């Protein structure tokens, strides 16, 4: 601004006004660009979703959820697929959450800052970007053959847990970092131990952030096909895993963990590649269910964040 | 002050521990495991569906799609009872099975006719000779054969757009073997897809298109495509079930198979499944738009079982243009 001529005050004001106007144009242009980018993404999604709605909605019925796959498009359903997806997600969550949150808390609260933790940090972040099929190959060797889990729900759940572990760890750490340092110091001043600080303050306060990360991770895992196919999920399966209840010898039976399974994306893919056109409607309907599943998981994440944040007062 | 509820922590830890030890006490119904080719999948799926219905859930069947090669890998490892295969077992796969002590029966279950298609607006093509197809598809054609006129001077100077099976599929292997003369030898500048619906879309939207894929996809999309009669040396023959059945649609019709593990046949449910398969195949094969073999071929498969004729009749080598009668006359070998 020092280069502005200082001779006449009127010219001065003019020059400044022109400068401001020019910058305002840029402001406006960038806003427009942003709107275009947003509209493009929204329109593409809206069009895809609309198409799916149009093709799939007429096919959605109670029977669609309670029927097994079939070679006849009209009577084919997604029972084994959605049950498989829910069970795999359950295993994934039960494994990924304790491991991921634990690792995140350790790295943030306990780990000393040295070269080793730096290397671990970089690797965790990098792991989040590894293509999912690589996890599938790793899991095929490790879980399916080495651990002898076979092509089971347990193997699939563990695979997807590995896949979302970096996401959970990163989300946990981000959430913990938002807690003000003086809360910890206050607790220490009252004589709290490290574990007391973590369990009374750090975990409860970071819970909304952690939950959001977990659910976003699960929402990614639910649509994964490549690693699940790699470990050998099936395409036609017209029976359900054994129920965890109803066994006289055990309160809860875990036989379902070793059962063969299929998941929603695989069922969809199979229907899309069929010669009969009627199956395209089935695929659209299944896609609709999958999208609704994912969106409702995201909705839960938003609700949790909102609900828990309200309770935190510091 | 918020606290982590101790009870929740405790119960989730117990649950996780329990996850690690999963005793299997419940007697679940026996499972027939099938994996392999996506071409054979619709047939085995139809049989599996009817079989489960007929046995009222006393036996379960699973069918996977790992491709013919992937299916044989699992089969030779002893992980599956049956392998779906759109080509005969290869030399390498035979050795692998032998190494692991897996012995098997080879059962042809249907014909598939590879169908060559053009756009319905294409008026000048009614039939093509195998030699003309070779001229288009051989590796040397790349960059040279770009218009229909380059193939046959009687055809117009219209750009030719090619669509074909992905290089991992048994369809690609068979087509190249039958037309070019060597498996996997093809020009590279064509639209390749493992998903035949993509090829249907491509050919139906492109006036100068030529492509090939399995018969079932043609039948379901007859309005959008025009099938080309193939002249293998004895005049043009259209791809119809009759012409495949009487052996005149050559060289593009091929038998497809299931392989059954000898060890699995000790289990009564597998034996039951195979009997059911052979008895119901003629009707179910037709229903899923493949071409059934003559009835005696299915009876022959069961006879091989009874007489313990193990192995393959191909000796690890795929062959083009075999009829089912010729196949049945051969002796199977491991």
Itemize the secondary structure elements and their pairings.
The complex is a heterodimer of chains A (314) and B (334).
Chain A: H1 9-56, H2 62-66, H3 79-110, H4 115-127, H5 132-146, H6 153-177, H7 181-189, H8 194-222, H9 226-230, E1 236-237, H10 264-272, H11 278-311
Helix pairs in contact in A: 1-11, 3-6, 3-8, 3-10, 4-6, 5-6, 6-8, 7-8, 8-11, 10-11
Chain B: H1 6-20, E1 31-36, H2 41-54, E2 60-63, H3 67-76, E3 82-85, H4 91-99, E4 104-118, E5 127-129, H5 130-137, H6 148-151, E6 161-165, H7 170-179, E7 191-193, H8 196-204, E8 209-214, H9 215-220, E9 226-227, E10 229-231, E11 236-237, H10 241-245, E12 253-261, H11 268-287, H12 295-306, H13 324-329
Parallel strand pairs in B: 1-2, 1-3, 5-10, 6-7, 6-8
Antiparallel strand pairs in B: 3-12, 4-8, 4-9, 4-12, 10-11
Helix pairs in contact in B: 2-11, 3-4, 11-12
Key words describing this protein structure:
heterodimer; A: 314 residues; mainly alpha; MetI-like fold; 2 domains; globular; B: 334 residues; alpha/beta; nine-stranded mixed beta sheet; three-stranded mixed beta sheet; 13 helices; elongated
Task: Give me a quick take on this structure.
Chain A is mostly helical. Chain A has helices at 9-56, 62-66, 79-110, 115-127, 132-146, 153-177, 181-189, 194-222, 226-230, 264-272, 278-311, and one strand spanning 236-237. Chain A folds into two domains: 9-59; 62-311, MetI-like fold (Orthogonal Bundle).
Describe this entry's structure for a reader.
- The complex is a heterodimer of chains A (314) and B (334).
- Chain A has 314 residues and is an all-alpha fold.
- Chain A has two domains: 9-59; 62-311, MetI-like fold.
- Chain A contains eleven helices and one strand, in the order αααααααααβαα.
- The radius of gyration of chain A is 26 Å and the shape is globular.
- The mean pLDDT of chain A is 88.
- By secondary structure, chain B is an alpha/beta fold.
- Chain B is 38% helix and 19% strand.
- Chain B contains 13 helices and twelve strands.
- Chain B has helices at 6-20, 41-54, 67-76, 91-99, 130-137, 148-151, 170-179, 196-204, 215-220, 241-245, 268-287, 295-306, 324-329, and strands at 31-36, 60-63, 82-85, 104-118, 127-129, 161-165, 191-193, 209-214, 226-227, 229-231, 236-237, 253-261.
- In chain B, the strands form two sheets. In chain B, strands 1, 2, 3, 4, 6, 7, 8, 9 and 12 form a nine-stranded mixed beta sheet that branches. A three-stranded mixed beta sheet of chain B has the order 5-10-11.
- Chain B is elongated and about 65 Å long.
- The N and C termini of chain B lie far apart (74 Å).
- The model of chain B is unreliable at 16-26 (pLDDT under 50).
- At the A-B interface, α3, α8 and β1 of A face α1, β1, α2, β2 and α9 of B.
- β1 of chain A pairs antiparallel with β2 (60-63) of chain B, so a sheet runs across the interface.
């Amino acid at each position: 601004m020092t280069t502005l001529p200082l001779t006449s005050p009127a010219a001065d004001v003019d020059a400044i006004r022109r400068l401001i106007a020019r910058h305002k144009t840029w402001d406006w242009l960038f806003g427009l660009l942003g709107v275009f980018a947003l509209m493009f993404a929204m329109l593409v999604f809206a069009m895809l979703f609309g198409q799916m709605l149009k093709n799939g909605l007429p096919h959605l019925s109670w029977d669609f959820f309670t029927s097994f796959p079939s070679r006849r498009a009209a009577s084919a359903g997604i029972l084994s697929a959605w049950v498989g997806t829910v069970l795999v997600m359950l295993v994934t969550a039960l494994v990924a959450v304790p491991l991921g949150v634990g690792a995140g808390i350790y790295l943030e609260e306990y780990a000393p800052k040295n070269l080793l933790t730096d290397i671990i940090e970089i690797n965790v972040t990098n792991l989040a970007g590894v293509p999912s099929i690589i996890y599938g190959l790793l899991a095929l060797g490790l879980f399916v053959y080495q651990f002898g889990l076979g092509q089971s729900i347990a193997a699939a759940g563990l695979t997807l847990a590995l896949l979302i572990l970096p996401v959970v760890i990163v989300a946990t750490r981000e959430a913990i970092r938002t807690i003000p340092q003086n809360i910890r110091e206050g607790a220490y001043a009252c004589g709290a131990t490290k574990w007391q600080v973590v369990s009374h303050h750090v975990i409860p306060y970071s819970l909304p952030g952690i939950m959001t990360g977990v659910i976003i991770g699960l929402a990614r895992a639910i649509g994964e096909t490549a690693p699940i196919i790699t470990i050998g999920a099936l395409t036609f399966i017209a029976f359900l895993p054994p129920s965890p209840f109803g066994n006289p010898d055990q309160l809860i039976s875990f036989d379902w963990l070793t059962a063969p399974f299929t998941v929603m994306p695989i069922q969809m893919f199979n229907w899309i590649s069929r010669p009969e056109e009627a199956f395209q409607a089935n695929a659209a309907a299944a896609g609709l269910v999958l999208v609704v599943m994912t969106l409702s998981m995201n909705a839960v994440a938003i609700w949790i964040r909102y609900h828990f944040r309200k309770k935190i007062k510091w | 002050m918020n606290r982590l509820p101790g009870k929740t922590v405790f119960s989730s830890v117990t649950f996780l521990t329990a996850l690690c030890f999963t005793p299997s006490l419940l007697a679940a119904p026996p499972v027939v495991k099938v994996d392999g080719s996506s071409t054979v999948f619709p047939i085995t799926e139809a049989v599996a569906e009817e079989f489960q219905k007929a046995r009222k859930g006393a036996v379960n069947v699973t069918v996977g799609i790992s491709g013919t090669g992937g299916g044989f890998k699992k089969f030779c490892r002893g992980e599956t009872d049956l392998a779906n295969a759109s080509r005969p077992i290869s030399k390498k796969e035979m050795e692998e099975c032998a190494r692991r002590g897996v012995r098997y029966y080879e059962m042809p279950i249907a014909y598939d006719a590879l169908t060559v298609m053009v756009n319905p607006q294409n008026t000048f093509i009614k039939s093509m000779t195998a030699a003309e197809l070779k001229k288009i598809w051989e590796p040397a054609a790349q960059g040279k054969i770009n218009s229909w006129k380059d193939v046959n001077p009687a055809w117009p100077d219209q750009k030719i757009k090619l669509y074909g099976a992905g290089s991992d599929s048994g369809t690609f292997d068979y087509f190249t073997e039958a037309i070019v003369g060597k498996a996997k030898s093809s020009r590279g500048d064509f639209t390749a897809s493992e998903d035949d619906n993509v090829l249907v879309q491509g050919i139906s939207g492109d006036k100068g298109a030529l492509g090939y894929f399995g018969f079932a996809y043609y039948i379901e999309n007859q309005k959008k495509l025009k099938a080309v009669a193939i002249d293998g040396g004895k005049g043009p023959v259209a791809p119809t079930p009759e012409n495949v059945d009487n052996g005149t649609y050559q060289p593009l019709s091929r038998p497809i198979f299931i392989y059954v593990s000898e060890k699995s046949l000790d289990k009564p449910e597998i034996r039951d499944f195979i009997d059911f398969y052979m008895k119901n195949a003629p009707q179910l094969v037709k229903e899923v738009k493949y071409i059934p073999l003559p009835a005696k071929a299915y009876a022959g498969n069961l006879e091989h079982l009874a007489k313990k004729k193990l192995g393959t009749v191909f000796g690890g080598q795929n062959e083009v243009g075999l009829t089912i009668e010729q196949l049945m006359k051969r002796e199977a070998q491991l």
